[in-house]
């Protein structure tokens, strides 16, 4: 559950992993199974992504852009969440194979 000032709580249905404060009294909450938007004033909770793939990847950070794109950082990559045609689409961003397999020089 997420609580605010000890007075209100929401059943999230899964463990909260990361929170991002948006404008207008809303927060994004990445749980082990979903991405939620919670309005702290109206007490409404909207499910943006249900049955997310990141359960064992431990999402640990969220960032939002002015255009509404949401990025969730976690092990092995970043999830990009974007609203298109009234629904949220999820994209998995990872380093290129060349970057991931590069050899480090000792000069770093």
Topology:
Layout: E1 2-4, E2 8-10, E3 16-21, E4 26-31, E5 35-39, E6 45-49, E7 61-64, E8 70-74, E9 77-84, E10 87-93, H1 97-100
Antiparallel strand pairs: 1-2, 3-4, 4-5, 5-6, 7-8, 8-9, 9-10
Describe the 3D structure.
With 108 residues, the chain is mostly beta strands. It has one domain (2-100): Beta Barrel (Thrombin, subunit H). Helix content is 4%, strand content 48%. The chain contains one helix and ten strands. It has one helix at 97-100; strands at 2-4, 8-10, 16-21, 26-31, 35-39, 45-49, 61-64, 70-74, 77-84, 87-93. It has a four-stranded antiparallel sheet, with no helix packed on it. It has a four-stranded antiparallel sheet with strand order 7-8-9-10, with no helix packed on it. Strands 1-2 form a two-stranded antiparallel sheet. Strand 5 (35-39) and strand 6 form a beta hairpin. The relative contact order is 0.14. The model has no long low-confidence stretch (mean pLDDT 85).
Kindly summarize this structure in a few lines.
With 108 residues, the protein is mainly β.
What key attributes describe this structure?
1 helix, 108 residues, Thrombin, subunit H, mainly beta, four-stranded antiparallel β-sheet
